[in-house]
Write a structure and sequence with these properties.
CATH topology of the largest domain: Rossmann fold
Number of helices: 14
Shape: elongated
CATH superfamily of the largest domain: HUPs
Structural class: alpha/beta
Order of helices and strands: EEEHEHHHEEEEHEHEEEHHEHHHHHHEE
CATH class of the largest domain: Alpha Beta
Number of strands: 15
Oligomer: single chain
Distance between the termini: 41 Å
CATH architecture of the largest domain: 3-Layer(aba) Sandwich
Largest sheet: 4 strands, parallel
Radius of gyration: 27 Å
RNA sequence: GGCGACGUGGCGAAGUGGCUAACGCGGCGGUCUGCAAAACCGUUAUUCAUGGGUUCGACUCCCAUCGUCGCCUCCA
């Protein structure tokens, strides 16, 4: 498969390492609050990318960190009057719990900064030995102008960079330099001893250290939000490649931002929708479909309208599965060549789309071609139960790649006898052409939580799905 | 000011040198239905922000303009 790489601005072939493994490192959240729907985008994109690659027979090692020590964590903890370690642990747990609800599994490794300090210190020492870092007033800084490739990822030149650093950074040799280690300030209650005195890691160094520890030097894909390109990922490259040479990652893969109204959603702007709240209102599969019906490199508006469209997508897929189940019961005895063609073509196009820079919108288009073929077949009624079962299996198989297998309604749940009885009453009313009575009975059944639909095989009562917003 | 991304039908979203510009939602017409839902069939952009240029040929390449967004301030 090919993936677009920010550093080359081209689609690059994804080449596994000598053991046939693809290592992926994705920058995870800083845990000073509940994560928002925007944070969920890389989680979904990279989790599903992993599923896809594994389906392709590639072994994947997905690593996504938690940044659990940071200025914002100190600040939030101080505001609440709790120890920063406690606050970080609480929101680390919340992050795991919130993303678990998506049902996409966990990354293979989820390292935490607080558990990676020895490796971080070792990396800083290596940089100092190479003259790329220097201690100053209890801090350690990276000497940016000593690293020739600086700016390669973000396409910046050093002379173009404006000094945004406040005057407090007076200990630095250059305003471009960034902190690798920050000396402990009196009110900072999470800290470690180091060769440079007590303190804690700077923002960027932890990812260099944790990526190396989990994936080794020179892995396949480094990912994250596009807003991390500068300075975070630029600095990671400076650190990792500065310390060891070589190439930190083959491909730099960045997802675009969510938009709320006209601006991006972000914690600093305060216009956030917590993932947990979104998942209270919409099923996980709808949220996944919401992300995946758009390309990961496109800006994605966040709104109830868009979630509603994603729900329509999911319903169309679900309805096709239901249609198959009904058709298998009534069953034809022949072979529907058009159905087979739709399945084969759909499967081919599905994988072709994902092979080309993870083209999930086109993959959905392929699914819909398959769905139309299925719906045509169930309408025509020629396909045998065996052929229909195969079609169902194929569709579900592809849905599973996208993490959407959960939309399978499965075998219909037992309908309560009371509902069945009312259904019989309604049929008698309909037979007597007492439609007012029939509709009244339908209302009573609905009050019991079941929707009545009249199909070719007679009426059916199906549980009413919970509506968005009702939770 | 510097760097970067993007502007495709009512909405969303693919395509990125050459067959009829995918797919979903919505609209309209039809089939089915007591009604409804689902589904199916047909229809819904002579056109891809605008203006130039390159080319036998551009939505696709180049330039300019307008517009939107992101980064340059520890936000995915």
């Amino acid at each position: 498969m090919h993936l677009y790489s920010t550093i080359s601005k081209r689609k690059e072939p994804l080449v596994p390492d000598a053991e046939g493994t693809v290592g992926i490192y994705v920058c995870g959240p800083t845990v000073y609050g509940r994560i928002h729907i925007g944070n969920a985008r890389p989680f979904v994109v990279f989790s599903v990318l992993k599923r896809f690659l594994e389906r392709r027979g590639v072994r994947v090692r997905l690593v996504s960190n938690l940044t659990d020590v940071n200025d914002k964590i100190y600040t939030a903890a101080a505001a609440e009057g709790v120890p920063s370690a406690e606050l970080a642990r609480r929101y680390s747990d919340a992050y795991i719990a919130d993303t678990d609800r998506l049902g996409l599994g966990r990354p293979d490794v989820e390292p935490r900064v607080t558990e990676s300090v020895p490796g971080i210190i070792a990396l800083i020492e290596e940089l100092m030995q190479r003259g790329l870092a220097y201690a100053a007033g209890g801090d350690v800084y990276y000497r940016v102008e000593r690293f020739p490739g600086y700016g390669r990822l973000s396409g910046r030149r050093l002379e173009d960079m404006v000094s945004g650093e406040p005057a407090t950074g007076a200990a630095k040799e250059s305003h471009l330099d960034f902190a690798l280690w920050k000396g402990r300030k009196p009110d900072e209650d999470t800290w470690w001893e180091s060769p440079w005195g007590p303190g804690r890691p700077g923002w960027h160094i932890e990812c260099s250290a944790m990526a190396e520890e989990a994936l080794g030097r020179g892995f396949q894909v480094h990912g994250g939000g596009i807003d991390l390109i500068f300075p975070h990922h630029e600095n990671e490259i400076a650190q990792s490649e500065g310390a060891h040479g070589g190439c930190m990652a083959q491909i730099w893969m960045h997802n675009e931002m969510l938009e709320l109204g006209d601006e991006k959603m972000s914690k600093s702007l305060g216009n956030i929708a917590p993932l947990a709240d979104v998942l209270d209102r919409w099923p996980a599969e709808v949220v996944i479909a919401y992300f995946l019906t758009s390309h990961y490199r496109s800006k994605l508006p966040f709104s109830d309208e868009r979630l509603g469209e994603a729900r329509a997508v999911v319903e169309r897929l679900t309805n096709a599965l239901k249609a198959i189940d009904r058709a298998m019961a009534t069953g034809g005895e022949g072979h529907d060549a058009d159905l087979t063609r739709a399945i084969v073509d759909g499967r081919r196009e599905f994988f072709r789309a994902l092979d080309d820079d993870f083209g999930t919108p086109e993959a959905f288009a392929a699914l819909f071609e398959m769905v139309r073929g299925i719906n045509r077949a169930t309408t025509a009624g020629e396909a045998s139960p065996a052929q229909l079962r195969e079609a169902r299996h194929e569709l579900l198989d592809l849905l599973d790649v996208l993490g959407l297998a959960g939309i399978d309604p499965g075998p219909a749940a037992e309908v309560p006898a009371e509902v069945l009885s009312l259904l019989d009453d309604r049929e008698r009313a309909r037979a007597a052409r007492d439609f007012a009575g029939a509709d009244a009975l339908r209302d009573r059944i609905r009050a019991l939580g079941y929707e009545v639909t009249d199909g070719p095989g007679g009426p059916q009562a199906t549980p009413i799905a919970p509506e968005a917003g009702s939770a």
